Amino acid sequence: MLTVSLLDAHLSRCRSARHLLQIHAQFLASGLLADAFAASRLLLFTTSAAAGRLLPRPLDHSLRLLRLVRSPNAFCCNTVLKAALRQGLPHLCLPLYASMPALPDAYTYPILAAACAARGDAGEGRQLHSHAVRHGFGDDVYLRNALMRMYSACGCVVDARRVFDEGPVWDAVSWNTILAAYVRAGDVEQAVGVFARMPERSAAAVSSMVALFGRCGMVDEAKRAFDEAEHRDAFTWTAMISCFERNGQFVEALGVFSDMRGEGWPVDEAVMVSVIAACTRSEVMQNGEVCHGMVFRAGLGLRLNVQNALIHMYSSCLDVSAARRLFDSGESLDHFSWNSMIAGYLKNGRVEDAKALFSVMPDKDNVSWSTMISGCVQNNQSSEALAVFDSMKAHGIRPDEVTLVSVISACTNLSALAQGKSVHKYIREYRYNITIVLGTSLIDMYMKCGCLDAALEVFDTVEVKGTPCWNAVIVGLAMNGLVTKSLDMFSEMEASGTAVPNEITFTGVLSACRHAGLVEEGRQFFKLMQNKYQIVPNIRHYGCLVDLLGRAGYVKEAEDLIQSMPMSPDVPAWGALLGACWKHGDSEVGERVGRKLVELDPHHDGFQTMLSNIYASEGMWQCVKDLRGSMKQHVAKAAGYSVVQPSHSS
């Protein structure tokens, strides 16, 4: 006769599906179906991980068993509900609840709340909440905590807060749950309010706040919460390290990691990924190699996320061979592994190696294609970038905005107008939203290819015209000789209220003034950028104004401007002034500037020729002779080249 004790003994020795079915048959024959406790023992086993290894569909087996039990209790039903949730079948939980042969208890509704959270279904969650209240469980703190988690997971933070505020009692889990809801929603103000009111700030609460502050760039607040914490755990330390790393404070991140190790905390996968990322972005290879050694001593060397972080670190720090050794030793590589390795080759200029690896990548995703295309563009292989783009389309992969911007840049670099128009047509056909970034790329391409009408048409289609769009039009019009139109667009930009001029804008308008010889306007724009927009002129702004003044004959003013520059003048600025001296016959300034240029760039034959001509115009023949002798010794003519490449053909 099978008893509960014998049933437990048989189940503990069960190692096969056949054995389990024999136990099941004995259970039915023994009459234990009337014993809810005995049934619960068998249900517990059939819903366990052990049964999952024996049966192909263990939940179906459990459901059939539950239907055979004569008087199942809530525990039996809850066991099956938990199994459905654990096996990734939350959609079955509410139908099972609706057909439950027993009344629910205090443990039923938290399981159902977790199922609603897994499905992200706030509507079902509210129905469940209503049922729980009607059955008298509305004040159960365990259920209220589960409901708060459910509402938070469904994005209904207001509902979660209502549950919290209506609770007659709160425990530590209640406080942590409502805090986690605000942290998840990114609501700093409410999270800070809850954190301040917490009777006891657990390590989990501190970790949540540090992580939230880190995501919002509030590093000082994160450090204060960390420093004032009474309780810390490994997650708290990891959150602080990640906060510093995320916000570009890599030395501080490594300092916190050192303190963590000094206090004897063990390292885990999450903290090592953050620390390796800090080493990567600080480009301090020595720290990265130390972390690599620590990873293997901690037994984390085979963890995929750690391997990927190390591959990315070595690739970024120009040790692509070390990255490849790690890549080749990886047992289970993912897309990130392949993409990091390809990006590492491209960053190091090894395009052929990148192409070879890309060609054997088993399952290329959008990032893979985008990485390859942008890497080719950055390595001056724009034709290859367009070929990869053609292959991407042939494989049926729809590019994202980042990829399209890279492809348009390739067309711009090649002056490949036909291909640029083809890409624009593709964008229209597939109804891509013309964002600021995408619109700016198209405008720049059309402007540099001389298609002004097409560029202005794109500009008009961009709904929110940010500063980059205006800059592309202003600079493009000036570059194409439409100076008046360029300056008119600047006035429209100021009046638009949607964009503020920046350094690039003023480079464009000053270049326009230079091309048209608008001296007074150039002076005014140079003052405007400083007085109205508080933009400190850079060397390009000074260079434009120096060239403008010099061309117009204001040679002394141009020289004074160069002398007043807060940075060292570059060769183009001095060269523009020398050209102005030669053009306007100012030998005195020309001689000074020419000598300066010969010192800065002794191998530039043009500057030496101009200085020689200035000496000749003054009858300084010995100086001419000495300079030409020097030129014979030092100057090598640079080979000419064309900046216009032949169009890429698809």
From TrEMBL:
The alphabetized UniProt keywords are:
Repeat, Transit peptide
Say which domain of life the source belongs to.
Eukaryota
**Where do the PPR repeats start and stop?**
171-205, 233-267, 334-364, 365-399, 466-500
Query: In this record, what's one Pfam family?
Result: PPR
Q: Which residues form the signal peptide?
A: none
Q: Which InterPro entries has this protein been placed in?
A: E_motif, PPR_At4g14850-like_plant, PPR_rpt, TPR-like_helical_dom_sf
Gene3D superfamilies in UniProt: Tetratricopeptide repeat domain (1.25.40.10)
Query: Could you identify this protein by its name?
Result: Pentatricopeptide repeat-containing protein
- What species is given as this protein's source? Urochloa decumbens
Classification from the root reads: Eukaryota, Viridiplantae, Streptophyta, Embryophyta, Tracheophyta
